[in-house]
Amino acid sequence: MDNVSASGIKALVFDVFGTVVDWRSGVAREVAAFIASAQVTVDPFEFADAWRREYAPAMAEVRAGNRGFVRLDVLHRENLEKALMGFGIDPQSIPAASLDELNLAWHKLDPWPDAVPGLSRLKERFIIAPLSNGNIRLMLDIAKRAGIPWDAILGAEVVRMYKPAPSVYLDTAELLAIEPAELCMVAAHNDDLKAAKACGLKTAFVSRPREHGGAQTKDLFAEGQWDFVASSFIELADMMLGVGQSKRQ
């Protein structure tokens, strides 16, 4: 491993779903409560996975220009109905208010145990903000509930486009009044980092091997020449703040 320095980096932006917060457990918890009240029979984790699978195709429609930009809360609500139909449940048989409440599951996610302590340390030196496909209110609700110490809320709704479109990364650097090379993208997803690197950003991979549960097969390890590779936000803070030896994948 070669030594790598955080010198020149002025801001860190973070993927949120899977990297900062455990979306799967949080959504499954809310689905379990919904099941009890709606008297439907589905496995909460299987439903959470099915709901999440609709995420990428829905955003792809926006990136392709097939529909105008809508915030992720809207896509999640539409995808909820698709997921229900996939389990043979007619969404029309459930009160809309109940579905609207379940859709807020994405606003009630818990951070990984190392996330807030690591972010708090990184905040001492760098600007830190989400660069998520989640909308502003969604990011605010997660942060307020979990005590995530963001300096700003950035991401898809701010730039009106979804990752991994280049404008999301480049426009974010411009909004912060810094060069792309002064901005570091932190994510547990190699495809997010690949897109960021192609735009000239620095990159940091933080592994989350249980994002998709015990049978996860994707993003188990760094698959690119990222600037930093860490097992937690604590280790990333050590690297970027000069504690111990930095690493390059």
From TrEMBL:
<dbReference type="Pfam" id="PF00702">
    <property type="entry name" value="Hydrolase"/>
</dbReference>
<dbReference type="InterPro" id="IPR023214">
    <property type="entry name" value="HAD_sf"/>
</dbReference>
<dbReference type="GO" id="GO:0019120">
    <property type="term" value="F:hydrolase activity, acting on acid halide bonds, in C-halide compounds"/>
</dbReference>
<dbReference type="InterPro" id="IPR036412">
    <property type="entry name" value="HAD-like_sf"/>
</dbReference>
<dbReference type="InterPro" id="IPR006439">
    <property type="entry name" value="HAD-SF_hydro_IA"/>
</dbReference>
<protein>
    <submittedName>
        <fullName>2-haloacid dehalogenase</fullName>
    </submittedName>
</protein>
<dbReference type="InterPro" id="IPR051540">
    <property type="entry name" value="S-2-haloacid_dehalogenase"/>
</dbReference>
<dbReference type="InterPro" id="IPR006328">
    <property type="entry name" value="2-HAD"/>
</dbReference>
<keyword id="KW-0378">Hydrolase</keyword>
